[in-house]
Design brief:
Blueprint (H helix, E strand, L loop, with lengths): L2 H8 L8 H11 L9 H7 L2 E6 L5 E8 L2 E7 L5 H17 L6 E5 H5 L6 H14 L2 H10 L5 H11 L3 H11 L4 E7 L2 E7 L1 H5 L16 H7 L7 E7 L11 E8 L5 E7 L4
Parallel strand pairs: 1-3
Antiparallel strand pairs: 2-3, 2-4, 5-6, 5-9, 7-8, 8-9
Helix pairs in contact: 2-6, 4-6, 8-9
Bound molecules: zinc ion (ZN).
């Protein structure tokens, strides 16, 4: 299908469309069947030009219309290919979801990376990007291929889908059948998190944004370690190290230092509940 036909279709789309359905429809329309999905190729099919230029480091990318043409500008300061892929997919989300009323979207790094944007358009563009790069039916089938629960499975999936550790971890956790959560902490405080349905339903499981890490959590040990040789810690800790509860359960905590200063990602799994 030509880019012109897509542009015409786009003008009829509306904000009420589910981002997931919109992403799946695009994959079907373009007959995309192989993983990893290549968002640059999708942009090319839609006749959207992608180019890179150094931008203010608060921004990851921008979707813009110049005359009748559309372009995606990527911040050349982004180092990782997986982050570039996610940014292009996010901008494609704006293109498909947000109608023709707005000729430019400048997208903040924190809105793309923390998955905690308060802006509805940014949330929806992120949901679109996640579905485009990690379509739920295929991703769920692949999760079964990796019997280990946690970061090792997430590493394998991130390599297969060419997605970042954090976006893959959030996807994995939200779709998981286990009682589990993924937490990103920075400077010893919980910065953001995502969890499975089982975690949400369990009344002992409750995470609080900005809460200081427990002094005996593995995540804080990594944060405070002066040795860069220790990248990961994995072990059992009381559930109360992470959730304010009197319950005596233990959970598996697998924490890993992230390249960004003083950031740690932790996979929490209440496997014995
Ligand atoms: Zn955006």
């Amino acid at each position: 299908m030509s880019g012109r036909q897509f542009r015409n279709r786009r003008s009829t789309e509306h904000q009420s469309i589910s981002p997931a359905r919109c992403a799946w429809q695009l994959l079907r329309d373009l007959n995309v069947q192989s993983i990893p999905v290549q968002p640059r190729e999708i942009a090319e099919e839609l006749q959207i030009v992608v180019w890179e230029r150094e931008m203010d480091n608060r921004y990851d990318g921008c979707l813009m219309q110049v005359g009748g043409a559309w372009g995606i500008l990527l911040n050349s300061l982004i180092q990782s290919q997986s982050r570039k892929n996610f940014t292009i997919a996010h901008e494609l989300g704006h293109y498909k979801l947000d109608g023709i009323g707005k000729s430019q979207h400048r997208c903040l790094r924190d809105d793309l990376r923390a998955f905690s944007s308060h802006q509805l358009e940014e949330q929806r563009a992120n949901q679109f990007a996640v579905e485009l790069l990690m379509p739920a039916p295929i991703f769920k089938a692949d999760v079964v291929e990796y019997p280990d629960v946690g970061l090792s499975a997430i590493d394998n999936l991130a390599a297969k889908y060419a997605t970042s550790l954090t976006s893959t971890a959030i996807r994995y956790t939200r779709l998981s059948q286990h009682i589990c959560a993924i937490v990103c902490s920075e400077n010893g405080r919980i910065k953001y998190f995502a969890y499975s349905d089982g975690f949400r339903r369990n009344c002992d499981c409750y995470l609080v944004k900005n809460r200081p890490l427990h002094p005996d959590s593995l995540a804080l040990k990594l944060t405070e370690s002066r040795s860069n040789e220790i990248e990961e810690l994995n072990g059992e800790v009381p559930l109360s190290h992470w959730c304010q509860t009197g319950a005596k359960h233990t959970l598996i905590e697998h924490s890993r230092r992230l390249p960004r200063m003083k950031q740690v990602i932790s996979f929490l799994w209440l496997h014995a509940a």
